[in-house]
C-alpha cells in the first residue's frame, strides 16, 4: 500500500510539472484531465502584543474638588454680597464655590467666590473692606466685584493683586444695575457672565484652597458626630444644622431659615469655622487671617476640631486635626465663617438647637 501511494503521488507530481511546463512554453493544448494543485500552506507567526491601559486622574474643579468635563481656565470671581436685612434674600449664594462670612459694622457681609458656576444676577453687591485684601489673595489675582469703598480701602484694593471690577470701573460692561423692587443701597446687581468677560489677558484660574476626601476614603477617627453649630457674628446669629436626608448642612440666621431668591435654603457640603482675632480700622472690624488659631471643620455630618494656619496671604489656609493631620473636606461647596474667639458652640445629633443659647 505504501509503494502504491508513492507511485500515484509521483505520477501526479509529474503530470503537474508537465502542465506547468506547457503553460510556460505558450502551448495551446489543453489536458483532458485538469489537475489543480492545493496551495502550499504558508507558516504565519503572530507576535503577542501587550496593551497598557493608562488611567488618567479625573479633572476636578479647584474650588470644590468635584469632577468636571474639562479644566476650568477662567479666573476666580469674588463678589461682595450684602447681608443687611433689607438685602435678603440674596442672589447667587448657592451658586458660589466658596463663601466667606466676615464681620463688618454690626452686621456680616459675604465674599462669595465663583469659579465653577455663573449667577445672573448676583447680589445685592456692597462695598469692600480692608480685611478682603489678605483674605482673598490666595485666589491668584481674582476678579473683585464690589460697589466701592472709602479712600483708604479703595487704595488698598487697587494696589492688591485683585482685579478691580467695582461699580464705577465696570458699570455697563459688568451688567451692574439697580433692582427696582429693593431700596438703595441694598439693590445693586451684576451678572457673573458679563464680569468674566472683563478678565485681563493672561488671567489664571485659582489654586485649590482645601484638600478633598476621595470617594472611597474613610473619615479619620479624630472626627466625631455632630448636629451642627450656633455662631454669634456681629449683629447676626447663625445656625448650621446637618441634614442627613440631603447630606448637607443647612443655614439659618436670626432664627429663620436662610433662603435665596429662588426660595432654596442656603446649604453647604462643608462649613469651616475659623476663630480669628479682629482689630479695627475706623469703625470697621479687620479680621486677622494670617497667623494661626483654632478651627472647626464640619463635613459629612462630622466635626473635626483642630487648627488653622497661614503665614502668607498668597497661600491657602492649612487645616489640621488634633492628631496633626491635614483635614480633608467633602467635595462640594464650602462656607468659611470668620468668627470671633469664643463665639461658636457645636451640638450633638438629636439636640434641639433652640434648647440652648447662642454663645
What do you see in this structure?
The protein contains 4 helices and 23 strands. It is an alpha+beta fold and 359 residues long. Strands 1, 2, 3, 4, 5, 9, 15, 18, 19, 20 and 22 form an 11-stranded mixed beta sheet that branches. Strands 10, 11, 12, 13, 14 and 23 form a 6-stranded antiparallel beta sheet that branches. Strand 2 and strand 3 form a beta hairpin. The radius of gyration is 35 Å and the shape is globular. Residues 1-45 have low confidence and may be disordered.
- CATH third-tier fold name of the largest domain: YerB-like fold
Radius of gyration: 35 Å
- Just give the CATH class of the largest domain: Alpha Beta
Most strands sheet? 11 strands, mixed
How does CATH name the architecture of the largest domain?
Answer: 3-Layer(bba) Sandwich
Number of strands: 23
Span between N and C termini? 112 Å
Number of domains: 2
How much is the average pLDDT? 89
**What level of helicity do the residues show?**
10-25%
Per DSSP, the total helix count is: 4
User: What is the H level of CATH, i.e. the homologous superfamily of the largest domain?
Assistant: YerB-like
Topology as a string of helices (H) and strands (E): HEEEHEHEEEHEEEEEEEEEEEEEEEE
Summarize the structure.
The protein has 359 residues and is α+β, with helices and mostly antiparallel strands. Helices cover 12% and strands 30% of the residues.
Amino acid at each position: 500500500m505504501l509503494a502504491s501511494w508513492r507511485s500515484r503521488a509521483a505520477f501526479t507530481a509529474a503530470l503537474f510539472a508537465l502542465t506547468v511546463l506547457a503553460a510556460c512554453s505558450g502551448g495551446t493544448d489543453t489536458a483532458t484531465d485538469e489537475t489543480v494543485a492545493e496551495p502550499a500552506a504558508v507558516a504565519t507567526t503572530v507576535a503577542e502584543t501587550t496593551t497598557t491601559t493608562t488611567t488618567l486622574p479625573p479633572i476636578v474643579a479647584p474650588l470644590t474638588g468635584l469632577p468636571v468635563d474639562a479644566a476650568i481656565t477662567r479666573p476666580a470671581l469674588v463678589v461682595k454680597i450684602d447681608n443687611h436685612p433689607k438685602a435678603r434674600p440674596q442672589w447667587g449664594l448657592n451658586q458660589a464655590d466658596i463663601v466667606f462670612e466676615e464681620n463688618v459694622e454690626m452686621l456680616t457681609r459675604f465674599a462669595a467666590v465663583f469659579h465653577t458656576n455663573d449667577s445672573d444676577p448676583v447680589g445685592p453687591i456692597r462695598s469692600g473692606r480692608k480685611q478682603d485684601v489678605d483674605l482673598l489673595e490666595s485666589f491668584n489675582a481674582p476678579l473683585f466685584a464690589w460697589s466701592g469703598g472709602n479712600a483708604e480701602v479703595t487704595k488698598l484694593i487697587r494696589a492688591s493683586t485683585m482685579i478691580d471690577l467695582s461699580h464705577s470701573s465696570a458699570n455697563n460692561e459688568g451688567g451692574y444695575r439697580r433692582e427696582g423692587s429693593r431700596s438703595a443701597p441694598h439693590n445693586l446687581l451684576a451678572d457673573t457672565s458679563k464680569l468674566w468677560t472683563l478678565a485681563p489677558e493672561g488671567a489664571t484660574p485659582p489654586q485649590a484652597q482645601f484638600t478633598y476626601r476621595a470617594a472611597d476614603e474613610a473619615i479619620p477617627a479624630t472626627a466625631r458626630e455632630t448636629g451642627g453649630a450656633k455662631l454669634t457674628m456681629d449683629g447676626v446669629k447663625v445656625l448650621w444644622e446637618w441634614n442627613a436626608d440631603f447630606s448637607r448642612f443647612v443655614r439659618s440666621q436670626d432664627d429663620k431659615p436662610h433662603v435665596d431668591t429662588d426660595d432654596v435654603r442656603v446649604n453647604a457640603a462643608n462649613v469651616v469655622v475659623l476663630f480669628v482675632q479682629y482689630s479695627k480700622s475706623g469703625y470697621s472690624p479687620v479680621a486677622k487671617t494670617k497667623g494661626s488659631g483654632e478651627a472647626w471643620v464640619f463635613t459629612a455630618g462630622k466635626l473635626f476640631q483642630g487648627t488653622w494656619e497661614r503665614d502668607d496671604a498668597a497661600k491657602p489656609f492649612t487645616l489640621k486635626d488634633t492628631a496633626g493631620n491635614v483635614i480633608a473636606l467633602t467635595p462640594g461647596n464650602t462656607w468659611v465663617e470668620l468668627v470671633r474667639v469664643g463665639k461658636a458652640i457645636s451640638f450633638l445629633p438629636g439636640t434641639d438647637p433652640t434648647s440652648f443659647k447662642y454663645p
